[in-house]
Amino acid sequence: MRIMQIHDVRTRRSAEDFPQQDHLAAKIARVAADPVAVPEDTAEMVLNRIIDNASVSAASVIRRPVTVARVQAQAHPASGTGNGAKVFGVAGASSPEWAAWANGVAVRELDFHDTFLAAEYSHPGDNIPPLVAVAQHLGVGGVDLIRGLATAYEIQIDLVKGICLHKHKIDHVAHLGASAAAGIGTMLGLDEQTIYDAIGQAMHLTTATRQSRKGLISSWKAYAPAYAGKVAIEAVDRAMRGEGSPAPIWEGEDGVIAWLLEGPEHTYQVPLPAPGEPKRAILDSYTKEHSAEYQSQAPIDLARRMRERVGDTGEIESIVLHTSNHTHVVIGTGSGDPQKFDPDASRETLDHSVPYIFAVALQDGAWHHERSYAPGRAHRPDTVELWRKISTVEDPEWTRRYHSLDPAEKAFGARAVITLKSGEVITDELAVADAHPLGARPFARPQYVNKFLELSDGVVDGDEQQRFLAAVDGLASAANADGLNVLVRPEVLDKAPTIPAGIF
Fold this sequence. Notes:
Helix content: 40-55%
Structural class: alpha+beta
Number of domains: 2
Largest sheet: 4 strands, mixed
Strand order of the largest sheet: 6-5-7-8
CATH class of the largest domain: Mainly Alpha
Distance between the termini: 51 Å
Number of strands: 8
Enzyme class: lyase
Radius of gyration: 22 Å
Shape: globular
Family: Belongs to the PrpD family.
CATH topology of the largest domain: 2-methylcitrate dehydratase PrpD
Low-confidence stretches: none
Organism: Mycolicibacterium brumae
Number of helices: 20
CATH superfamily of the largest domain: 2-methylcitrate dehydratase PrpD
GO molecular function: 2-methylcitrate dehydratase activity; aconitate hydratase activity
């Protein structure tokens, strides 16, 4: 049983006696500076998620947003004060904040890595690129990188449990800036004051609106977390040089809670590990088997399961997905976004359309990170017809289970009610995805390795695949993190789009 302390967090007037030690940023800094050992199962899951990130980065490496970010990073070579950091897929070294930027975009572009959902939602694997980049630049050993990542996952997941952002249309990367700064602090063995200042700066600079995930969704959806990681590195650098931060960033009279979240009368409750308590939050998170928004993972598996019972999808009159409020309003018809039914919509928009996703999965019995989003697939007349027969409704029980604190009860799925033209009604439901820890086929090391081998097939040479996997296996005893970069075959990179010149 974990020993977690619940901290009340609310707005404080400037005139109040509110010492720094009571600020949420200071409490997070104390957790980050706590020299507690990393449990074996936590360390193992950290390695799994490093593999997971490399998998999806390989699959996205020549997509346009990833190519743009890579070109930008390559225009910023390493400074003379460190080794530089490696940009995914290519040789050479770049300045660490720009390497983190490029690698963060590669990780997020396909919406295909790990997730944690609670009061807020998140992709805690977004912490990996900034920490690896700093580790490579400064020659940090593998054991300290693992410690830092355990902290970054812990802080992001604890903030996600305690503070809802999306209700107030604030993007979830606001939690990421703080967690990455805390994780870097742990990794580098920084003191509490330095970590405190870095957290405050990162939180201040990464609080952005959710318009990046609304309506016609652009490539900024992938850039936003990468930007938070880049900002976190810069914040730590400034804090290490003695620069302070806005304080108290969450609780201040003109701070985040007072004006961007629930307001000065509200108290949030944020769980954090007690002193000496190991950081195990990464074990609460879960990765994706399918390249789509997490709340569509279980509906994809449900559609595949229902396919044989349904038969000819042309005989379907309507499909209603009964699900949680969050699924309904973010990726369902409760969003009010007509773009979610537009065959010409961007890939990012289709990724956030559960009606589209359920239709394709029901017809194909499968989901693929490229084929399922191809323009020809989205324009198929029978798919468009079926797609527009699908709607979502909120079911209070699914909403309750979504927010449940009991892992055995927590659910991110739906109940599908399919009505045929004959009047026959077919129903089924699935609470969690097959790959979820409580699902039919939970992901463990073999599944992570298989995901990497599948997504990097034809992109990375076989010898390079095995070298990378061996580097991950040996990370805990490695003198540095240089082996965590993966080189992509030159003939693959040659197929990347040509990017116009910019400023750099």
